[in-house]
Amino acid sequence: MSPTPQVSLAPLTTLRVGGLAEWFSAPASLEQLQADWAWARDQGLPVTFLGAGSNLLVSDRGLPGLVISSRNLHQTSFDPATGQVRALAGQSLVHLARQAAKRGWQGIEWAVGIPGTVGGSVVMNAGAHQGCTADVLVSADVLTNTGEHQVWGARELGYSYRTSSLQAGGYLVTQATFQLVPGADPQRVIATTQELLHQRHSTQPYDWPSCGSVFRNPAPHSAGWLIEQTGLKGYRLGGAQVAHRHANFILNVDQATATDVFKLIRHVQARVLERWAIHLQPEVRLWGDFGEGLGALE
Fold it and tell me: Residues 90, 174: contact at Cβ < 8 Å?
């Protein structure tokens, strides 16, 4: 299928906000992905790769060029001989964690509550419950902006807290290989996975659309604690609100716009800076133009 013009991105993000993609495709194979990438290069268009749409704020003005969604790229293979799992970029982390648990494979239980994809986890070094992508990643397959295929080992990705060298741009993760530990009792791994999921759901808000944690934790404090102690729980701007259950979440409670969310992020930053002399750095990625006069978040 050829890319489709003028597709709304709001339904494809967990915040349910954002404008139109100039062009959009959702390839079902790596071959089609490469063809769409080549089409965009031939047209001189920028390319943006969209996973689960979590940890993401897309501008109301939308995105120029081609947006490639990985939602149909979710094939996964388990190799019992090596304990390695190979998954395409669009595979859900939740599904991957549950698949591993059912086989009695340990090492990725922490991912069961993360609403993201394999590709996004590689780029962002996703993590929870003292585990993260860097702990289990063997290698990542990427396409360069010239269409070249490369394989990067975990040590080449420059991992640190919620960051990797891939965030500089110019590369598109197509699939990844993880090293897990097979051989455990599946019921025990399932129980551990379910307990971690329960912990996450009991402490974080899942009743309204959100992008997950908005800010990085500025050690030794947590961003949520700083925001809560500043008195901002429940603070609302337009349709966007700081969550009551966890102050490092911003919720879309009433048809919020991306601009509502952006302005609320800036307000929280300003109040925390004023109270604590700490600048909260966004963990959420910002895509697109948020307008003159709104300023930068970093």
Answer: no
Q: If phi over 0 gives left and psi between -120 and 50 gives alpha, with beta otherwise, what is residue 88?
A: beta
In the chain, at which residue ranges do the beta strands (DSSP E only) sit? 4-8, 20-25, 47-50, 56-58, 63-69, 76-79, 84-88, 127-128, 131-132, 137-144, 149-153, 171-179, 236-237, 240-242, 250-252, 285-287
Q: Is 188 a catalytic site residue? A: no
Cα-atom radius of gyration of the chain, to the nearest Å?
19
**In sequence order, what are the beta bridge partners of 7?**
21
Catalytic hit among 25, 162, 164, 210: 162
Instruction: Find, among 177, 178, 191, 179, the residue nearest to 102 by Cα.
Output: 191
* 162 catalytic residue (yes or no): yes
Residue 221 has pLDDT above 70, yes or no: yes
Active site residue 213: yes
Share in percent of the chain as helix, strand, coil (round to 5): 30, 25, 40
Which is the catalytic residue, given 213, 228, 271, 275? 213
Q: Over the stretch 104-159, which tens digit does the pLDDT of each residue have?
A: 999 999 998 888 899 999 998 988 888 999 999 999 999 887 778 899 999 999 88
Identify whether the C-beta of residue 171 lies closer than 8 Å to the C-beta of residue 143.
Answer: yes
CB 242 within 8 A of CB 227: yes
**Annotated catalytic residue within 283, 285, 292, 298:** 283
Half-sphere exposure of 153 (CA within 13 A, CB side): 2
Among 215, 220, 234, which residue's Cα sits nearest to residue 272? 215
**11 Cα distance to chain centroid:** 15
Name the residue among 298, 212, 294 with its Cα closest to residue 252. Answer: 212
With the C-alpha atoms ordered 97, 98, 99, 101, is the resulting torsion angle positive or negative?
A: positive
